[in-house]
Amino acid sequence: MTKIKICGLMCPADIEAVCKVRPDFAGSILTPGFRRSVAREQYREMNRMLADAGILRVGVFVNEPLRSLTGSFAEMLDLIQLHGDEDADYIAKLRGFTGAGIIKMFRLRSPADAEAVNRSTADYVLLDSGTGTGKVFDWSLLSGITRAYFLAGGLTPENVGDAVRLLHPFAADVSSGVETDGRKDPEKIRQFAEIIRRTE
């Protein structure tokens, strides 16, 4: 069954909405400078709420210095999502600091991109159109992918059923697709999860 990841969670109210739905994964952006970035002290409260609910905690980082990442978060996260230009050497060094699983994001723009995805040393790969663009990429490019993947990029309650039926991803990942006026919408979160579960 396709797993569910709700990402871009910014405050305790978002966590409360997610805990009612019980997705498999809940993610927050922990690198500063993005619209949905979460201050590290605030994330500690959010993290406790997720741990109490038994939802896997994902920290999203973009070109984060290893020292900063491992020093602050290694003990709090179940998975570390790398959403920048991190390479195999970075992943190898990160494994030396943490037992958390590693998700690496890849942009699929041409069939040639599939080769890098398939040979990645990360535990999981996430396929997207970019960094938080909220746009769907060409799903036909997935034909060259030979490993399980998180599908991201423009998913919404309106199209995630088709994505699950057609592609059978390991997980469906949503952020802006369950927002209203830039904030997480509890009803859209509920619909997104319900559609995935009903489809499969």
> What is the H-and-E element order?
EHEHEHEHEHEEHEEEH
Strand order of the largest sheet: 1-2-3-4-5-6-7-8
Distance between the termini: 6 Å
Query: What is the CATH level 1 assignment?
Result: Alpha Beta
Structure, explained:
The chain is α/β, with parallel strands linked by helices. The termini are close together. It is built from 7 helices and 10 strands. The longest helix has 14 residues, at 40-53. It has one domain: Aldolase class I (TIM Barrel). It has helices at 12-21, 40-53, 66-73, 88-95, 113-119, 160-167, 186-199; strands at residues 3-6, 25-29, 56-61, 79-82, 101-107, 124-128, 149-151, 171-174, 179-180, 183-184.
Blueprint (SSEs and pairs):
Elements: E1 3-6, H1 12-21, E2 25-29, H2 40-53, E3 56-61, H3 66-73, E4 79-82, H4 88-95, E5 101-107, H5 113-119, E6 124-128, E7 149-151, H6 160-167, E8 171-174, E9 179-180, E10 183-184, H7 186-199
Parallel strand pairs: 1-2, 1-8, 2-3, 3-4, 4-5, 5-6, 6-7, 7-8
Antiparallel strand pairs: 9-10
Helix pairs in contact: 1-2, 1-7, 6-7
